[in-house]
Specification:
Elements: H1 16-25, H2 31-43, H3 48-55, H4 60-76, H5 78-81, H6 85-94, H7 98-108, H8 118-130, H9 136-152, H10 157-167, H11 173-189
Helix pairs in contact: 2-4, 3-4, 4-7, 6-7, 7-9, 8-9, 9-11, 10-11
Length: 191
């Protein structure tokens, strides 16, 4: 699907279902509403491609709401998102929104990772974790993904440990708590 080149830069619709989903995502945000929309997409998985198109759109609010929807879908039906993992990796690497990045990192932390993605994901997540320019939730979720990649590639453990230890004195309480947990886990696998 092509993104329109109009000022709005929103997605185009190929079906009535896509138009309806988009209209539902424009409603005022509430947890109950997004859970209801998640149930609809669960029953119509053909809408996942369109949802990912919205995530990759240049309209930040639309992308954030669609990524929030994916996060709730992951909580209720993670198997639905497995086949869309490559598109989510692409979306997380290209988005400029910390809200979208936070949601996608949380999803990717639980999905199988492909070997050819590990390097780019590790390098990018490491940049996000050490940067103070990103929201703390992005930095913490990036740390969690880095831990997961390190489990698959143990040679990366010393580098990850060094970065986390260097950041511990400067992070928020939540970052420090996550860092302590991950450092303990790294110690267990690096014996």
């Amino acid at each position: 699907m092509a993104v329109r080149s109009s000022i709005e830069k929103r997605v185009t619709f190929e079906s009535e279902e896509e138009s309806t989903l988009f209209a539902l995502l424009q409603q005022p945000l509430s947890r109950n509403h997004i859970l209801m929309v998640a149930k609809i997409v669960e029953s119509r998985p053909q809408l996942l491609g369109f949802t990912l198109e919205i995530v990759q759109s240049s309209h930040q609010h639309d992308a954030m709401v669609a990524s929030w929807l994916l996060s709730h879908l992951y909580d209720s039906s993670p198997e639905l998102l497995r086949e869309w993992q490559p598109q989510m990796v692409q979306a997380v690497l290209t988005t400029t929104s910390d809200s979208v990045r936070r949601n996608l990192l949380r999803i990717l932390e639980g999905l199988p990772l492909k070997e050819d993605q590990l390097g780019i994901l590790f390098d990018t997540a490491l940049r996000w974790m050490i940067s103070e320019n990103h929201a703390i939730a992005v930095r913490a979720n990036a740390m969690q993904l880095l831990y997961r990649i390190s489990c698959l590639e143990p040679a990366l453990i010393p580098e990850l440990r060094n970065h986390i230890e260097a950041l511990m004195d400067y992070g928020t309480a939540g970052f420090q708590s996550r860092g302590k947990i991950i450092l303990k886990k790294l110690q267990l696998i690096d014996k």
